[in-house]
Task: structure prediction
Amino acid sequence: RGHGRSTQLGRFSVSHVNMRNEHFQQMPHDVAQMVQQLMENDQVDLLIDTANTVFIGSSIGANTAVMATAELEILPVRAIAMLSPGEEYAGMKPFEEMQQFTGDMLVMTSTDDLLAAASADYFERKLDHLLVIRYPDYAHGIDILDRYPESVRDLLDWLLDPQRYQPHPPESKEDEAPADVPEDPIELEFE
Result:
């Protein structure tokens, strides 16, 4: 709603820049309804592993992801990964749903994203079933994955096994090739 191609509300054009809080607060319901419809539609051939479903959200989408799980009756969600969630975005307060969620939860934030970092600190103090990974400097939401290459590995490794996950050390910002990579490019031949 108000993002990407979801910018039409009836005959009106809606942007996240000028949306009212009540429109934002409908986003978890939108997601839950979409998932419900997909799961109930016999004509849609989906390969959904219903025993291994994970929601991932970024910024207000992080709040949306966790709040949508509370509305889902047909699909149990195993884990939720949240990039830069907030204690409150546009009236969306996910804490109650986070308390009720029994699966694994991950929060990824950066130290200089003050709202998201403070929210992560709050969630971490209040919830014992939550892992928080902090990256230095500033990146918000999906930009974390772009700015910190190790964050992609962190997210994927956590998704594969949240109980045994260990954070990756930050990658070097130098442009040097690793020692085990030859200087000459390898040419591949395809037939």
The longest strand covers residues 77-83.
